[in-house]
């Protein structure tokens, strides 16, 4: 194995350790011809490979290893979402078979661009939406307007709100003049905790 043709600045054991890290990323069924893959790996780092000597480790970790991670992650997300060929065909998704590891290296497949995921597979960034009437998080959407549970009830379910208000009045929990809604809610919560109902919940 022509290790002597490696640049003297490249640490042989570190390079083999990085190969093992790269090898571990391959899906189990694709771990084939490891010796051939190691030869191909070393060949990438032979003298005058177009890789600056001082950057060989960075190239191994942030190009070769990262590229394989990205490609395998893309495949996993596709197969998780569309497990059968019929599912993938229906959504116009074609996933080519991974090449042999040695072929991946010899053909420079680390330069292959990772395709964008279909919209319904891509991870969606969570965007918090606030109630249109207050800063509280929205819980209900009606005709593109967002409401917290309180303001939805106030606008669309006033019968329930009146029933709730009557019950609170009977318990002596009517909102007091100048009392904020947050303070009123906290007072009601403390009452519930101290009541028989609250003690049952706590148990």
Task: Walk me through the structure.
This protein has 203 residues and is an all-alpha fold. It has two domains: 3-111, no CATH class; 157-202, no CATH class. The protein has helices at residues 12-25, 34-44, 56-81, 85-90, 101-106, 149-156, 158-170, 181-194, 196-202, and strands spanning 140-142, 145-147. It has a two-stranded antiparallel ribbon. A hairpin with a 2-residue loop joins strand 1 (140-142) and strand 2. The longest helix has 26 residues, at 56-81. It is elongated, with a radius of gyration of 31 Å.
Instruction: Give me the secondary-structure category.
Output: mainly alpha
Helix count equals 9
N→C terminal distance: 70 Å
Overall mean pLDDT score?
Answer: 77
| Shape annotation | elongated
Strands ordered across the widest β-sheet? 1-2
Give Rg in angstroms.
Answer: 31 Å
Helix content: 40-55%
Name the helix and strand elements from N-terminus to C-terminus, one letter apiece: HHHHHEEHHHH
Task: List the domain count as a whole number.
Answer: 2
Strand runs, count: 2
Major β-sheet profile: 2 strands, antiparallel
């Amino acid at each position: 194995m022509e290790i002597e043709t490696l640049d003297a600045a490249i640490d042989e054991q570190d390079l083999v350790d990085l190969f093992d890290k790269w090898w571990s990323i391959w899906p189990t069924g694709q771990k084939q011809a490891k010796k051939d893959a190691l030869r191909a790996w070393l060949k990438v780092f032979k003298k005058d490979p177009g890789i600056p000597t001082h950057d060989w480790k960075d190239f191994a970790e942030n190009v070769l290893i990262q590229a394989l991670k990205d490609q395998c992650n893309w495949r996993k997300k596709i197969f998780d979402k569309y497990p059968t060929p019929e599912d993938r065909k229906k959504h116009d998704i074609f996933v080519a078979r991974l090449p042999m590891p040695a072929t991946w290296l010899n053909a420079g497949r680390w330069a292959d661009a990772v395709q964008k995921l279909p919209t319904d597979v891509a991870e969606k960034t969570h965007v918090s939406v606030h109630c249109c009437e207050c800063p509280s998080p929205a819980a209900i959407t009606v005709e593109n307007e967002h409401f917290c549970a309180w303001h939805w009830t106030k606008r669309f379910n006033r019968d329930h709100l009146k029933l709730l208000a009557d019950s609170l009045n009977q318990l002596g929990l009517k909102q007091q003049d100048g009392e904020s809604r947050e303070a009123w809610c906290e007072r009601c919560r403390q009452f519930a905790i101290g009541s028989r109902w609250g003690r049952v919940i706590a148990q």
